[in-house]
Amino acid sequence: MTTARTTTGASRRHTVTDSPYGPLTLVATDGVLAGLYMTAQRHRPPEETFGEPDHGPFDETIRQLDAYFAGELREFDLPLHLDGTPFQRTVWAELQRIPYGETRSYGELADILGKPGASRAVGLANGKNPVGIIVPCHRVIGASGSLTGYGGGLDRKQRLLAFENGTRDTVQALF
After folding, report:
1. 32, 137, 141, 160: which one is catalytic?
2. Which residues contact 59 (CB under 8 A, 6 or more apart)?
3. Is 137 a catalytic residue?
4. Full DSSP string of 25-58
5. pLDDT of 171
6. CA-CA distance, 109 to 119, in Å (whole number)?
């Protein structure tokens, strides 16, 4: 399970790493992972907010991402710097409780959070998740089981879910 913290006026660094889903931009605030962004991602902050290029703060993040993409890691164990509203941070914490290979609907998450009827608010918070994949917002689906919304694009969401539910051969055929 990951942990969250927030601060202001912090130093930021970034790097780009390859993945089966295209380049991933990793952003750290004071050396702690604060962003994982895909190309053409909705709600991706402007590049100038990512700070100076520096691979140093990301060795463990990249190691865990590589293990995840190799099918060897099912739960990330990284400190996170998640900036957001208290409600967003609550939603993001709940996302981290969705087990690998499982999904929850927006309505189910709203119920778990004690806010029945707040599925739209959960969806909005889910869409603003700054650390995709590691905070697994791709595991949230529509009430009917449909793949609704994903900041990285529905194709990537489908591929991530297939990766977590399929065989390695099936997943490799998708790329």
Report:
1. 137
2. none
3. yes
4. EEEEETTEEEEEEETT-TTPPPGGGS-EE-SGGG
5. 40
6. 7
Q: Give the residue among 43, 42, 25 at the shortest CA–CA distance from 34.
A: 25
Pairing mode of beta strands 24-29, 12-17: antiparallel
Tell me the sheet residues that pair with 5.
81
How far apart CA 51 and CA 100 sit, in angstroms, is 32
For 63, other C-beta atoms within 10 Å of its C-beta total: 12
Q: What's the predicted TM-score (pTM) here?
A: 0.86
Question: Per DSSP, what are the bridge partners of residue 14?
Answer: 27, 53
The residues, ordered by sequence, that sit 6+ positions from 70 with a Cβ below 8 Å of its Cβ are none
Give 94-159 as a DSSP string: HHTTSPTT--EEHHHHHHHTT-TT-HHHHHHHHHT-SBTTTS-GGGEE-TTS-----TT-HHHHHH
Give the integer Cα–Cα distance in Å for 70 and 83.
29
Residue range 64-120, pLDDT digits in tens: 999 999 999 999 999 999 999 999 999 999 999 999 999 999 999 999 999 999 999
Closest CA to 132 of 63, 36, 58, 57: 36
Number of other residues whose CB lies within 10 A of the CB of residue 9 = 6
Q: Rounded to the nearest 5°, which phi and psi values hold at 77? A: -130, 80
